[in-house]
């Protein structure tokens, strides 16, 4: 009986590292975009519009700021999770389910590179 591997090969880890680095780069660019949109929300040039429209504008503006703030928080967490995945690649524990200790499928890791649980373990949580 052949025992299942306990970790991914160095070649696999190098491939995953590349995927993660690309995702971090894209996520950071998205975060910068969200933050710049937030900064632009502070002054959108409607100071000279009529007072009645201004009330609607301010309500919309604060909702937009809140939405952007939530997006930024989620994006920062995503980047942190990706950096943690990178750390696991470096110490060769990447791709090992933290619940079952089995390897997470390559397909799952390519789609969700910061995954720490296999589908099997995720389903057990429900």
Provide key terms for this protein.
126 residues, mainly alpha, Four Helix Bundle (Hemerythrin (Met), subunit A), DnaK_N, TraR/DksA family transcriptional regulator
What does this structure look like?
It is built from four helices and no strands. Helix 1 (10-41) runs antiparallel to helix 2 (51-90). The chain has one domain (10-39, 55-124): Four Helix Bundle (Hemerythrin (Met), subunit A) (Up-down Bundle), CATH 1.20.120.910. The model has no long low-confidence stretch (mean pLDDT 85). It is an all-alpha fold. It is elongated.
Topology of helices and strands:
Blueprint: H1 10-41, H2 51-90, H3 106-111, H4 119-125
Helix pairs in contact: 1-2
- Overall pLDDT: 85
Question: What top-tier CATH class fits best?
Answer: Mainly Alpha
- By secondary-structure content and strand pairing, the structural class works out as mainly alpha
CATH superfamily: DksA, coiled-coil domain
Q: Which geometry do the CA atoms define? A: elongated
Number of domains: 1
Kindly report how far apart the N and C termini lie: 32 Å
Helix content bin: 55-70%
Can you summarize the main beta sheet? none
If you consult CATH, what is the topology? Four Helix Bundle (Hemerythrin (Met), subunit A)
Oligomeric state of the chains? single chain
Instruction: Quickly count the helices.
Output: 4
Give the beta-strand count: 0
Strand content: under 5%
Gyration radius, to the nearest Å? Answer: 21 Å
Order of helices and strands: HHHH
